[in-house]
Amino acid sequence: MPMNISAMELYGEAVAMSMASSGSTRLLHLRRPWPVRKEEPPTAVASAICWARKVKLREVRVQAGGGNGSKQASVDRVNGRKVNGVVHGSEASLSTGNGTAVRRVDDGGAVSMHAYRLGRFVEDRFVYRQTFVIRSYEIGPDETATMETLLNLLQETALNHVMSSGLASDGFGATHQMSLRKLIWVVTRINIQVEKYSRWGDVVEIDTWVAASGKNGMRRDWMIRDCSTRKIITRATSNWVMMNRETRKLSKLPEQVREEVKPFYLERTVFFNGSCDNEKIEKLTEATAENIKSGLAPRWSDMDVNQHVNNVKYIGWIMESVPMNVLEDYRLTSMTLEYRRECRQSNLLESLTSLNGGVENPANTSSYSVELQSTHLLRLQEDKSEIVRGRAEWKRK
């Protein structure tokens, strides 16, 4: 910025904020509460930020005035370069995937926005690989990453895969043809098996790829490696179908969408020798469930951009009906979830759990066998409609 002005002086300058409200524009002015230093020429700086109704940034303008006149210009260039997602000149080589790049100069170096995702394509671009560091807020009471953390990392890798491939049209997993037809992907089933949970500060590497699943579905697989040992510590697979985001009804896979995603299909399975849990999950009832937890309420922060509860959030509610001594003495090694219907913020849920595997008295930890299995159900409290069925396997810590 060519103007030589301190942060406190910048804050004290006249600031104009333009807010769109009922079609009218209101200007709020804050005057400098202290005099201008004599050694600097008086300079007025004003910023105007225009917002759409849902707090969507539309434009940023800088108004500079001094001396006998003022000048206002739209900020679409910084140091002679276009910004706001426009790739230009020497930055074109930094762009990957959807063609957008943001360049930042730091000690003379240029960094692409995609570099911050730490992801790249391998195996002739059929596999997307991303690296993560396990953060302190991603571990649980036993000082290891939680099942929710793992599923969040899988979801993040999947979305970055779509974005970096150039398929994403709306920035959240929908292709161009899907956006035209108001379609979104929804997961119907996921199975994740954990050999070892990472600890705080561990670095993991996640591979993901996609394949066809029947006529109207898609399968996505993941593999997590420990970067220090190079051992595979988690495997996961999932099935996805299409839903109309307005009618909330399932849809067939349009041929135009199939042609978009087909070049990325890799016919490879992450599980071998039938190790994937493909068996049907039995429905729990009041008669078969050993523990029932009612009154579980989704929060606003549990909602995703598709206006329903994020699928990862269900795990926390499932655990609400698992006995405390199981959570303390056992490690969750496998979980399979079947998603039956959407859940909204206004819904109240019930969590049901049944344990088996030599368990006689859940209150007595000594009665548990080394291996433990559990069956779960999340349902609406009002009409008992099923939201998610689940099955899990546990091992003693």
Topology:
Blueprint: H1 7-12, E1 15-21, E2 24-30, E3 44-51, E4 57-66, E5 69-74, E6 77-78, E7 81-82, E8 104-106, E9 109-111, E10 119-122, E11 127-133, H2 147-165, H3 176-180, E12 183-194, E13 203-213, E14 217-226, E15 232-244, E16 250-251, H4 255-261, E17 291-296, H5 314-319, H6 324-329, E18 330-339, E19 349-356, E20 371-380, E21 386-396
Antiparallel strand pairs: 1-2, 3-4, 4-5, 6-7, 8-9, 10-11, 11-13, 12-15, 12-18, 13-14, 14-15, 15-16, 17-19, 18-21, 19-20, 20-21
Give an overview in words.
The protein has 397 residues and is mainly beta. 12% of the residues lie in helices and 38% in strands. It has helices at 7-12, 147-165, 176-180, 255-261, 314-319, 324-329; strands spanning 15-21, 24-30, 44-51, 57-66, 69-74, 77-78, 81-82, 104-106, 109-111, 119-122, 127-133, 183-194, 203-213, 217-226, 232-244, 250-251, 291-296, 330-339, 349-356, 371-380, 386-396. Strands 10, 11, 12, 13, 14, 15, 16, 17, 18, 19, 20 and 21 form a 12-stranded antiparallel beta sheet that branches. The longest helix is centred in the middle third of the chain and has 19 residues, at 147-165. Residues 1-40, 42-47, 55-108 and 358-370 have low confidence and may be disordered.
